[in-house]
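Here is the promised in-class demo. Please do not try to memorize the tokens; focus on the logic of going from shape to residues.
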């Protein structure tokens, strides 16, 4: 590394930047702690902190309480605000590799919230499907979906680690044709933070989705919690 007359913090900044670009420090991973960097570069703590601050200000690094300094993720632009598309398809269209881990799939009695959004009674059963979804092995969104038993009684026979909910409904003559979504921005609770690999109280995008099939039958109510640090959303409006 040709340092020339560069200040020491700039030399560290450039070296860290090169290691981020060449994949030595991958998105979502921790860079060495301050004490380690002091030893690596043979400099003082203020010099290390100045170099890190520059990269934090540039949006390349992020300090996390109790964890250290991580390489920030590139934001994934989500376009489902104006189109009906499966998560897998949307992630693949961005050149990323999707993965799904099913945390729960069970038949249960619906809560008042679920009854209201699916327009069903407390006497009707629903399937509750909880999935943690990834892009390039990084957790992106935690999704809890409710599907009325009366709409698709064989839902629990499918492996949603491997197949898409929307594609499964499509192939069994129950396509989601209309959706209504509501967005909130909330703080992550302990469980959500642990699953999405973020800190407690970090911001998350909180989407409520109601999906309807032909004849306007409500077939899905989903709650999706997206990480705020690696997701953005595109909204198209026509006049």
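The designed amino acids, position by position:
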């Amino acid at each position: 590394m040709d340092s020339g007359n560069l200040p020491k913090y700039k030399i560290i900044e450039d070296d860290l930047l090169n290691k981020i670009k060449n994949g030595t420090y991958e998105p979502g991973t921790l860079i060495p702690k301050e004490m380690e960097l002091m030893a690596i570069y043979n400099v003082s703590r203020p010099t290390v902190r100045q170099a890190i601050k520059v990269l934090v200000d540039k949006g390349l690094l992020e300090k996390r309480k109790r964890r250290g300094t991580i390489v920030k993720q590139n934001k994934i632009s989500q376009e489902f605000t104006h189109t009906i598309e499966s998560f897998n398809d949307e992630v693949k269209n961005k050149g990323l590799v999707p993965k799904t881990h099913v945390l729960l799939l069970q038949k249960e009695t619906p809560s008042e919230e679920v009854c209201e959004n699916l327009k069903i009674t407390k006497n009707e059963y629903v399937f509750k499907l909880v999935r943690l979804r990834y892009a390039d092995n990084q957790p992106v969104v935690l999704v809890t979906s409710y599907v009325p038993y009366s709409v698709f009684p064989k839902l629990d026979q499918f492996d949603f680690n491997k197949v898409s909910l929307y594609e499964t409904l499509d192939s069994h003559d129950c396509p989601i044709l209309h959706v209504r979504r509501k967005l909130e921005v909330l703080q992550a609770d302990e469980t959500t933070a642990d699953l999405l690999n973020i800190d407690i109280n970090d911001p998350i995008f909180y989407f409520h989705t109601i999906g309807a099939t032909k004849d306007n039958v409500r077939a899905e109510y989903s709650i999706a919690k997206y990480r705020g640090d690696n997701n953005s959303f595109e909204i198209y409006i026509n006049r």
